[in-house]
Specification:
single chain, mainly alpha, ABC transporter involved in vitamin B12 uptake, BtuC, 79% helix, 0% strand, transport, ABC transporter permease
């Protein structure tokens, strides 16, 4: 590893630690150190803040990794986790659950778990469809078109459901779509950690073939890269990582596009192993900053990520147009 890469990792690690401490001390009440380690009147609030930090760290690892894999595989800097329609289908599954679950007697403590399960189930179902369709689409662009069509169809169904929804159900769905990082319980974080770990394992297996793929299809095949297996790994990793975060936090937009872009600006874009590590570090830092901003301003997380991400993407488009 180069000296520059080590310095970048150290700086990002220090920044993550600082923002984590700041995040733990951000809220309506001032907590003391013993509140995080001993039973006290504020222990429950301390646990909520710890859960908030943990889920933001997991999101910072997952979303940029998913975007990084998509951008490297499709060789498109504007590709993101939602390019295959995974986020849209997760949102559709949640919409079905929220808008129709009022007809069933579900205990309150299970409602959030079933909501997350609905999002994961919908995304995994789409992942299976994508894996089966990928064998028919030899050209990568067809997968992008298929994902776009799925996103458009899911968005149309969600709009239709919202049109006929009751007021409370509609409000619940809108609140979920804003992104809420204070509602995730410790048990849900355990489940999310397992899903993220599996997604990261698939990501790890796909980096080396991606290096060969970046040199061109013909050259990659001459190196013995199994392009069909690579496609399956990319779809599986991106689906698990983006779907799991969407399930528990709601759709967090644009982070999967802009974090890989920043990483390519600060370090050699051809070194994919280092790029992957930088994406995770920078993603964690950015999500921690967004979390603090959301707590300070009471603005929904998804709104903050959109306000930050849209101008960056516009600048990327203008830069590409000049080139």
């Amino acid at each position: 590893m180069s000296k520059k890469f080590k310095i970048l990792c150290l700086l990002l690690t220090a920044a993550i630690v600082v923002t984590t401490v700041f995040n733990l001390n951000t809220g309506f009440l001032t907590l003391h150190l013993q509140d995080f380690f001993q039973d006290s009147a504020q222990s429950q609030i301390a646990e909520i803040r710890i859960n908030r930090v943990l889920v933001m760290l997991l999101a910072g690892i997952s979303i940029p990794t998913s975007g990084f894999l998509m951008q490297e595989y499709f060789q498109n800097p504007l590709a993101g986790p939602d390019i295959l329609g995974i986020t849209s289908v997760a949102s559709l599954s949640v919409a079905f659950y929220i808008l129709f679950s009022h007809d069933f007697l579900i205990p309150e403590f299970l409602q959030n778990s079933f909501l997350s399960l609905a999002a994961i189930a919908g995304s995994l179902l789409l992942m299976l469809v994508l894996l089966s369709m990928s064998n028919r689409f030899q050209d990568k662009s067809y997968l992008i078109i298929f994902g776009f069509l799925v996103s458009a169809f899911a968005g149309a169904i969600v709009s239709l459901l919202q049109f006929y929804a009751e007021n409370q159900s509609l409000k619940n769905y809108i609140l979920w779509s804003f992104g809420a990082n204070n509602m995730v319980t410790r048990n849900q974080i355990y489940v999310l950690s397992i899903l993220v770990f599996i997604g990261l394992f698939f990501s790890f297996k796909s980096i080396k073939p991606l290096i060969g793929n970046s040199l061109g299809t013909s050259y990659a095949q001459s190196l013995g890269v199994n392009l069909n297996q690579l496609k399956i790994l990319i779809i599986a990793a991106s689906s698990l990582l983006s779907a799991s975060i969407t399930a528990f936090l709601g759709p967090i937009l644009f982070i999967g596009i802009i974090v890989p872009h920043f990483c390519r600006l600060i370090y050699n874009p051809s070194k994919l192993w280092q790029q992957w590590i930088l994406n995770m570090f920078l993603g964690m830092l950015m999500m921690m900053l967004f979390s603090v901003t959301a707590e300070k301003t009471q603005i929904p997380l998804n709104v903050i990520s959109s306000v930050f991400g849209i101008p960056v993407i516009l600048l990327m488009l203008l830069k590409q147009n000049r080139l």
